[in-house]
Design brief:
Elements: H1 3-20, H2 44-47, H3 52-57, E1 59-64, E2 67-68, E3 72-74, E4 80-81, H4 83-94, E5 98-103, H5 106-114, E6 120-126, E7 135-150, E8 167-170, H6 174-189, E9 200-202, H7 205-213, E10 219-223, H8 224-234, E11 237-254, H9 258-274, H10 276-283
Parallel strand pairs: 1-5, 1-6, 8-9, 8-10
Antiparallel strand pairs: 2-3, 3-4, 6-11, 7-10, 7-11
Helix pairs in contact: 1-7, 1-8, 4-9, 4-10
């Protein structure tokens, strides 16, 4: 098989990982359902906190990178579905708004929120102190990073020892930052070759998986939720070692819009308290990633 054919086959497998050919966490075939586990009613007290410009248009525009199953991906009909979609729609409903999800490149989403292109962003963003300098973040989930390799670990890699190994990461992700700011400085300090190029960077998580499946890289580092989903969906990838750097994930909100941040945080907490949140995570088999309390700007690192 030619290199091009191998790449095309791997890309097709990665599309399947994205949700177009995955049986899914609910055990059925085809696309994932878009409707959340329950439809919570509008909370008048929370709706009163919604800024006037959002009330006027009656909806909230939410940016997401629809290549990150199961958090967000496109189903067979091209609709954006996933954990964040179900949760985002439930939050918007509590606030008396419709939710409109916009597919966007991950590394441009925060800038888009800052520029007013999007009202919010939900794409499993890790809450970090650095990001909180640019935007406000409402925590709603926990996740970490994980290393994945092709099944059988043909290159006999160790998740903690990737110096000199070609590794795929998504551009703008905390995993890309981890390679550049933590892993490679450690490699150099130990006199070992760094991960080339601070990692092979791709715009989409499906492209990261495709590069690994095609053998263009020997490993990938991604959010542990995405790695777990890719393992189940492809049958050709395995996680190497455990998860690390587990931290809160957060909804991204324009910096200083305290009223909106308060409304979103209180809506998330209400969903947690009444069980809607738990039912949504249960639908996607992600109960272990649940939080019991939502806070504004709760980064731990």
């Amino acid at each position: 098989m030619t290199a091009a054919a191998t790449w095309r086959r791997a890309a097709a497998a990665a599309i399947a990982i994205g949700g177009l050919a995955v049986t899914g966490c609910d055990g059925g075939g085809g696309s994932q359902p878009r409707v959340s586990a329950t439809a919570p009613s509008v909370d008048a007290a929370l709706a009163a906190l919604v800024p006037a410009h959002l009330k006027a248009k009656g909806k909230v525009v939410i940016a997401t990178d629809a290549s990150y199953a199961p958090m967000e991906f496109k189903d067979a009909q091209g609709r954006i579905v996933g954990v964040d979609v179900d949760l985002g729609e439930a939050v918007a409903d509590r606030l008396g708004l419709d939710a409109e999800f916009k597919d966007a490149k991950f590394d441009g989403i925060i800038g888009g929120v800052q520029a007013g292109k999007y009202d919010l962003a939900m794409s499993d963003f890790a809450a970090t102190q650095e990001r909180q300098k640019a935007v406000d973040m409402v925590t709603y989930f926990t996740s970490g990073s994980a290393v994945a390799v092709r099944s059988g670990n043909p290159d006999r890699l160790d998740a903690a020892l990737l110096c000199g190994v070609r590794v795929a990461v998504q551009a703008g992700s905390i995993q890309a930052e981890d390679v550049k700011n933590t892993r490679n400085p450690k490699c150099r300090a130990e006199g070992k070759p760094p991960i080339p190029g601070d990692g092979d960077k791709f715009d989409l998580q499906t492209q990261v998986a495709a590069a690994l499946l095609a053998g263009r890289v020997s490993a990938m580092i991604a959010d542990n939720v995405a790695v777990n989903y890719a393992v189940k969906a492809s049958g050709q990838i395995e996680q190497l070692g455990g998860s690390y750097n587990v931290s809160p994930s957060a909804i991204v909100i324009p910096k200083g819009d305290g009223k909106l941040a308060q409304a979103v945080q209180r809506a998330v907490q209400a969903l947690i308290d009444d069980g809607t949140y738990g039912r949504i995570l249960d639908k996607w088999d992600l109960e272990s990633n649940a939080v019991t309390t939502s806070v504004v700007n709760g980064a731990t690192s």
